[in-house]
Specification:
Blueprint lengths: L4 H8 L8 E3 L25 E9 L10 E8 L5 H10 L17 H6 L6 E9 L4 E9 L7 H7 L5 E7 L6 H12 L3 E7 L8 H14 L4 H4 L3 E5 L4 E3 L10 H10 L12 E10 L3 E10 L1 E3 L3 E5 L5 E6 L2 E6 L2 E9 L3 E5 L9 E3 L17 E7 L14 H14 L4 E4 L6 E5 L2 H13 L4 E3 L3 E2 L2 E2 L5 E13 L3 H10 L3 E7 L4 E9 H4 L2 H9 L4 E11 L11 E4 L3 E2 L2 H6 L4 E3 L6 E2 L3 E6 L5 E3 L29 H7 L4 E5 L4 E5 L4 H22 L1
Parallel strand pairs: 2-16, 3-5, 3-6, 6-7, 7-8, 29-34
Antiparallel strand pairs: 1-2, 4-5, 8-9, 10-11, 10-18, 11-17, 12-16, 13-14, 13-18, 15-16, 15-17, 19-21, 19-22, 19-23, 20-21, 22-35, 24-25, 25-27, 25-28, 26-27, 29-33, 30-32, 31-33, 33-36, 35-36
Helix pairs in contact: 10-15
Amino acid sequence: SLKSPSLRRLGSGHRSQSSLAFNVRSTPSHPILHSYGLVSRLFAIPSSNLSSRFYSTALDPRVKPENVRNVAIIAHVDHGKTTLVDSLLRQSEGTIQGSDTRVMDSNPLEKERGITILSKYTCVVWHDKVNDTYYQLNIVDTPGHADFGGEVERIMDMVDGVCLVVDAQDGPMTQTKFVLMKALNKGILPVVVVNKVDRPSARVGEVENEVFDLFLALQATEEQMDFPVVFASAKEGWSTTDMKIKSDTMHPLFSTIISRVPPPQLDRAAPFSMLVSQIEMSQYFGKLLMGRICSGTVKTNDKIIALDRESKKQEDAKVMKLLSRRGLDMVGIDEAGAGDIIYISGCVAASVNSTLCHPTITKSIPCIPIDPPTLSMRFSPNKSPFAGQEGTQMTSAAIKERLFKEAESNVAIRVVEGDSSETFELFGRGELQLGVIIETMRREGFELSISPPQVVSKIDEHGDELEPIEEVVIDCNNDHTGTIVEQMANRKADMVDYIQSGDGRTRIIFRCPMRGLLGYRAILNNLTQGTAILNHVFHGYAPFKGEIINMRNGAIISQSEGVTTAYSLEGLDNRGTFFIEPGSKVYAGQVVGESNKDLDIECNPAKQKATSNVRTVVKEDKGKITPPRIMSLEETITYCRDDEVIEVTPKNIRLRKAILDPSERAKAARQKKNRVNAEKERKG
């Protein structure tokens, strides 16, 4: 129930001009907020307010329909997209004030990792004081990491232009190529923003030429090739179209967007239709479907239908509520028309890529095809000896419901039921995307057993196996190039380009099987002491390139249950590298470290020091214990072997053998070896 009188008016459609607003983060928790996972996209922005104000249309009263622009901000990760949106919000009317940064990154994981994971939409009004004209910009901020490319693909249907942000030092990177290709294929006109030009190491002229070469390589049209270039420092809040002309505002970028990006050319007189691009959940309005209206107009209480991608009817529905953005505020509206980006409440079965339309329409709106998943992992309930001690969601039914609801809103993943009723297979783009989903579920109280990632291959028309190939870009110091090239060759990678920048750094481009990259990021960081940068993006499929030699040593396995002691770990220190600290709870079959040798070894890390009546002055010296190697969730995912399982609980991430009993584990290893030998003999 809505306790606030203003909220009751908003829920009932009453037009109130009250200025009362409340912060969404201060509202009490509700189970429905967690039912869509990453989709705890509750109004997307933490500082945004669900305002009690109502408007007649999605347009600002001061803005004419021809002065609306729908634009997306796209770029490679860490090239400054979200900071650029901050500057645009700060220098537009009635949005954010003060020193708040990255206000669009609302998800807790986004703030912790410093990256954008979810696409988010906001609306700003800019006053062109020279012409005394008001413009409304509907801006969509998108992720920059390749694993979240699905967020970029599905918003291309919502916008008429894009701002391609490129770092003035790094230049075009792998994800730059990916997001630009999606925009060019859609026929969208880009504005190139060379960001971070205030840095001493900026290569403004060279980067501008590299961007032009990238447009040529992607076969852009003549109109797309004639792109304007804006030089900016999003952090300092200024932009310019000429490096010789000083500026202290973002007005040159606003003006360039207005002149380059066309207004929506859509028919408002036609029947209503809208392609759903995103789902959000509200504890007050339930399921909210976001998208851009493609034709016609829609009002509160209108009757509509939902069509799937095959134009099959999903449901009959009634528009219960229309919502739109005003800066960082979510406001109610009475009516919206073609070109407006809005939220609709009242549908149950519709999901991402569904078409909401007038009952007379029978054909769905075409949507951009999504690149296929490249990795899969199996999810099942936690069955370790410590199961049930930390989590609240432990049943297969809860896991199934959670995964399928995640897939409903995230078109880049796919979920299927496994071999047993308790196993579910999740298909995704990469270990980071899968890791974010696992981390989100972990924080919601789930206890999971997760298999190591498997590469998703496909069979061509000739019956040959094709595996996914990634385009890999590694920036490193010149001293490390030889070792990196050798390591990548062992992982079946082909070197495509080798570019020396002249400042002691080299950029090497490879085409590598996806399975060859699993676990390599940690190896690269250890080799280069963290000075190398690795980025990759899906390139295509190629014939299977053969087996890759296992690069990992054996595991150190606990043979008993208990609490680890410094005394025991000190005695085992020369056996390898441990993943645990003194005082950690362990059980038999848990992987507690990595051996110095290729074979697995078993030990007792919980061994207690024998006590006696003899007095001694020798005390336990904890200083001799080598610090443990603490791995993140993504590192654990790529480190895990085929005979191991990742145990994920709200408080711990453990690695264990799939078969805990040592004798049964040895028996299974012998049977696997016999099967492999028999298969080799059969193939001759």
